[in-house]
Design brief:
Helix content: 40-55%
Strand content: 5-15%
Structural class: alpha+beta
Strand order of the largest sheet: 11-10-9-8-12
Organism: Polaribacter vadi
Domain Mechanosensitive ion channel MscS: 338-401
GO molecular function, one term: mechanosensitive monoatomic ion channel activity
Main location: membrane
Subcellular location: Cell membrane
């Protein structure tokens, strides 16, 4: 009895207190946060007063304003757009800066629903006139005409709930995903056909096997994106709660972002595959080194942009994050100036192209063949097969002698013969060397010098200046070997001896000792026979076909 007494006493007081708490929330349009609170609070089931919610619509009669206010909430709920009032500004003088202009407006969801926003009118905040004018069209896009007719045609048993979801919603959900699978299978073939046509129009070549595989992989996420667009369009019509819609559309947007990342990664691979085939047809191999560098750079760029888009879906302010990353990046750049210099040096090398892969270069003390140009350094292999890693910042500032760009390889040397060699043999020897140069298949017969140029400390100097046709270092050494052997054979046949550093002491009379000086045969017949013999043997030693390495 006492319990019933106290309940009867306090129940009216509790009811009055509850009514006062509902009535204590008043219409407030002083700032964006208050306007959104007014709109959403008075459309909740336990505080439903649509006439108060309609106060957020400016310039319309109450009936039209109520209809517009209800439609705005249904659109937000249908697209899973949860308004977090804790993040909405309470500043009455809020300014939204766009470009060079500033407006007194507040956009709720700039990325997903930019057409619904508030604006300041006569010191109060309302839904903008543009939003009010577009709301019917937006509502029709979110909830097509057939939605209301479908709901009216649902029988009573279709509204029975299982796990909080009505039976018709289960059926409709299965139907939507079934249609999405059919769209995926159909659009995958169409996307692959279109990609093949685009590739053929751009490259004007038939598609090869590797590119075909990449295009098939690229068509897969494109068809998935089309299927997701269908689900995104239809799902609000299923009339799930705001909580369910919020999670579903978050999953859809995450999947869409991941698929777009996959699409761009495969697109980068296709473009790099096509560009790689193009560089293989060019003469220089420096472009071949640019392919992996560009591939890594573009892949990193796609992943970074995709990562920021995923963070944006979870409500992270990417603008602040990028600004922080920029400042941090500047600090890192200042701390690692050498790395930045090397990156700039890499760009300058690819722009200026002072050398190509496999070119023989001289850069400071480093002499060798360029094997690889990377982000940070260039790898040069010396003649002894050792490796030099030259930072690109230093290499871009060095004086680089690119011997790979020479038209011919110049070879210059001096032959020293004994001072007591007769003039006739010197002349014969010079003429013989000239004939060897002319007959040599790897030397230019139209540009050479073989002359008696001077008097050395211990020898008469004969200059040999020739140009080898091949630019390959190994071929040049082979050509030198053949030239040297022919000259030595010529000297041996003529009886010309090469001098070495020596001091000659002349003794006019020495008992019982004969003169040690060599006996030279200067007869013209002997000279001609010796030259002809050496040239004949040299021609026999020449291969029938000798293709220089380029």
């Amino acid at each position: 009895m006492k319990t019933k007494f106290w309940l009867l006493l306090f129940f009216p007081l509790l009811t009055i207190a509850q009514g006062q708490s509902v009535d204590s929330v008043k219409v407030d349009l002083s700032n964006p946060n208050a306007t959104l609170t007014t709109h959403l609070y008075f459309l909740q089931q336990d505080s439903y007063q649509p006439e108060k919610s309609a106060k957020t619509i400016y310039g319309l009669e109450e009936t039209d304003a109520i209809r517009k206010a209800i439609k705005i909430k249904k659109i937000l709920d249908g697209k899973g757009l949860y308004v977090d009032l804790k993040k909405v500004t309470t500043n009455p003088a809020h300014i939204d800066s766009i470009g060079y202009s500033a407006y007194s407006r507040y956009i709720l969801f700039p990325d997903r629903m930019p057409d619904i926003y508030l604006e300041k009118i006569n010191n109060n905040w309302y839904y903008s006139s543009e939003t009010v004018a577009k709301i019917d069209a937006i509502y029709s896009n979110v909830f097509p005409w057939y939605v209301e007719e479908l709901q009216d045609s649902i029988p009573v048993y279709g509204h029975k709930k299982f796990l909080g979801v009505e039976l018709w919603q289960f059926v409709a959900l299965l139907l939507v995903f079934g249609i999405a699978l059919l769209i995926f299978a159909f659009t995958k073939k169409i996307a692959f056909w279109i990609l093949q046509r685009v590739q053929h129009q751009i490259t004007k070549t038939n598609i090869n096997f590797e590119v075909k595989i990449v295009l098939k992989k690229l068509a897969h996420p494109i068809s998935l994106l089309i299927s997701l667009a269908f689900v995104d369009l239809i799902f609000p019509s299923l009339q799930f709660s705001l909580e369910v819609n919020a999670w579903v559309f978050l999953a859809i947007n995450i999947a869409r972002t991941i698929f777009w990342i996959y699409v761009f990664l495969k697109l980068v691979k296709v473009v790099m595959q096509i560009y790689g085939e193009f560089t293989e047809r060019t003469h220089g191999r420096l472009d071949d080194q640019l392919v992996p560098i560009l591939h890594n750079f573009l892949t990193g760029l796609v992943l970074v942009v995709g990562f920021f888009n995923v963070l944006k879906l979870f409500g992270v302010d990417t603008t602040t994050l990028i600004a922080g990353a920029t400042i941090g990046g500047l600090a890192v750049a200042l701390a690692s100036q050498d790395t930045v210099k090397n990156l700039i040096g890499t760009i300058m090398i690819f722009m200026d192209k002072p050398f190509h892969i496999d070119d023989w270069i001289e850069a400071g003390e480093v002499v060798g063949t360029v094997e690889k140009v990377g982000f940070r350094s260039t790898r040069v292999r010396a003649a002894d097969t050792s490796i030099y890693q030259i930072p690109n910042s230093k290499l871009s500032e060095m004086v680089v002698n690119n011997k790979g760009l020479r038209l011919f390889r110049r070879y210059n040397t001096n032959l020293g013969v004994r001072y007591d060699t007769p003039p006739a043999l010197i002349e014969a020897f010079v003429n013989g060397v000239r004939q060897i140069v002319i007959e040599h298949p790897e030397t230019r017969s139209d540009s050479y010098n073989v002359e008696f140029t001077g008097f050395g400390d211990s020898a008469l100097l004969i200059m040999v200046n020739v140009y080898f046709k091949s630019l390959a270092w190994s071929t040049e050494q082979t050509s030198k070997h053949r030239l040297h052997m022919a000259i030595i054979k010529l000297a041996a046949e003529l009886g010309v001896e090469f001098a070495f550093p020596s001091t000659t002491v002349t003794i006019e009379q020495f008992p019982d000792k004969s003169n040690l000086s060599p006996k030279y045969d200067t007869s013209q017949a002997k000279i001609n026979a010796s030259i002809n013999k050496v040239l004949t043997e040299f021609k026999k030693d020449t291969p029938p076909e000798n293709t220089p390495e380029n």
